[in-house]
Amino acid sequence: MQKNKKFGRRNFLLGAASSIAIGSAFSTPAISKNIRRLNMVTTWPKNLPGLGTSPERIALRVKEATEGKLEIKVFSAGELVPAFGAFDAASSGLADMYNGAEYYWQGKNIGFNFFTAVPFGMTANELNAWIDHGGGQELWNELTKDFNVISFQSANTGVQMGGWFNKEIKNLEDLNGLKIRMPGLGGEVLRKVGAAAVAIPGGEIFSSLKSGAIDATEWVGPWNDLSLAFYQAAKFYYWPGFHEPGAGLATGINLDTWNSFSKSEQSIIRQILAFENNFTLAEFNHHNSIALETLINKHNVQMRTFSPEIMQSLKKLSDEVLEDVSTRTEISKRIFLSFKDSMTRLKEWSSKSEQAYMKARG
Fold this sequence. Notes:
By secondary structure, the chain is of the alpha/beta class. It has helices at about 1-15, 55-65, 85-90, 125-135, 135-145, 185-190, 205-210, 220-225, 255-260, 265-295, 310-325, 330-350, 355-360, and strands spanning about 30, 35-40, 70-75, 95-100, 150-155, 165, 180, 195-200, 215, 235-240, 250-255, 300-305. The protein folds into two domains: about 1-160 and about 245-285, CATH 3.40.190.170; about 165-245 and about 305-360, Periplasmic binding protein-like II (D-Maltodextrin-Binding Protein, domain 2, 3-Layer(aba) Sandwich).
């Protein structure tokens, strides 16, 4: 953690010498002529479709909505701090905010996973319902305040794919011994079947897959997977993903910075993040459908499905992992119970609404 802080401060000071706009102190937002300049660090590669462009869109909308009074400069992974150093940068005040996936911070508290995705957990619509109306946001606030951060939903990728493999997975035993890029609790499930699950930033996945440093990877879905050319490094593309049925992404804000905003500024930021959350879900659904056609028809990607037996086994192991999570800390237990209670009701409603309709539609 200390290493990340030094990295961010050193690089900022070097950059500040040639850029007055960034300001004279990384930990303090620059204020001049009634313009407040803020820094956002992200976990995403620069200009990555959806994930990388969403923070830039947030920054633009905040500037427009505040008539230029709040300016956010976005730094991609590695530009100021490493991808997985984003949370610490915002927590410590080295940056004003971060944009990333909450399950990257599971080493701080396992409860963070529930605000991105958990295996066989909530879809995007269900996650929105729980966080916005079922008590999830209040529990999230309680979790993050100990780290001097407040976080909000700001994107969702929807259902993710099962991943890219260089061999066919015909039974659960075929996963044994594989080194697979899968963060979060999905990785915990894979470890139970003998796989070596690792967390690698998005910008490093292709080279790791190509070199054989990893045997397989999940990332997001066709749109992002096409942009990173995974089809050049792996033969088989599996669906569906069990690990992230509706991956929520977040923008976290240093709590001191957040409290320094006016009520109007807080309201503007919350509304923009909520809008972006819905906007990106539609964006991913649209572009995934197009990219899937491209992968199949242009790049001859071989699509494969996990067998029902594999999915049933992974479901059983996932339930065991989630039960274990619920016992690790007092706050993670309360998050788990709230999540589980909401999902039970939401599943029942979904079975009689959207799920039933889509089955009938065919």
